[in-house]
Known about the structure:
The protein is mainly α. It folds into two domains: 1-52; 66-213, Flavocytochrome C3, Chain A (Flavocytochrome C3, Chain A, domain 2, Orthogonal Bundle), CATH 1.10.1130. Helices cover 46% and strands 0% of the residues. It has ten helices and no strands. The protein has helices at 3-51, 66-70, 74-80, 98-103, 119-122, 146-150, 157-164, 170-175, 184-187, 206-213. The longest helix is centred in the first third of the chain and has 49 residues, at 3-51. The protein is flat.
Amino acid sequence: MSEAEDRGDSNAGIDTDTEVDTADSRLVTNWAVALAMLTTLTVIGLTAWSIWPTYKHGSDARFVGPKTCAECHVEEAASWSETRMAKSFDVLRPGVRAGAKKAVGLDPDEDFTHDQNCLPCHTTGYGMVGGFVSIEKTPEMAGVSCEACHGHGGSYSENLMRDLKGAFTTSEAREVGLVYPPTIRVCRGCHNEGSPFIDRDYKFDFDERVGRGTHQHFKLKNKH
C-alpha cells in the first residue's frame, strides 16, 4: 500500500470521528432543549393549577339537598323525615326488611348500599350533578328526598325563591323547573316492575300512595 493511500485512510478516520463527535453533540443539545421545555411546561402547569379558581358548575340544573328545602319548609321537612321515603336507603342495609327480601329471593344479609341497581331509587339525584355519590361522601342525599319528587332545586330554589325572598308565583317556579304537584309519571320512575319487590301484576295506586307515603302539607307563609 502506498504512502498516499496510507494518508488517505488516516484522513478518512479523522473525518469519521469528527462526524460522530458532531452527531453526539447535537443529540446532547436536543435532549437538553427537550428537557428544558418539559421543565418549563411543568412549572407553567403547576402555577396555573395553583392559582386557578375553584370550579363551579355552570348549570343551575343541579341538586341542592333537603337542608336547603328545609330552610323555608320546616314543617314539611319534619313530616317527611318520618316517612318511608326518607328512610328508603335503610332498606339496602343488611338485615333490614329481611322477610321481604327472602320472599323475593334476595339475601337478607347482603349489603346493597353500594349496588348501582338499587341506588337510583333509594337515593336522590344518583349520578347527577349535586346528587348522591355514596353514603360516605353524600349521606344527606340518601333516601327519597324533596328533589326526587319536585325536581332539582338548583333551577328554582337558588335563582327564584332565594332571590325574590318568597315573592314569586307557583307558575313562575314551574317555568324554571319546579315539579308541583308531582305526577304519577314521577312516582312510576321507581314504583314499577323493575323493583324486585314488585310482581308483574303490580298496579300503582297513585292517589292511595300519595296520601299514605308522602309528607303532610301545611299552609305556606307566602302566597304563591
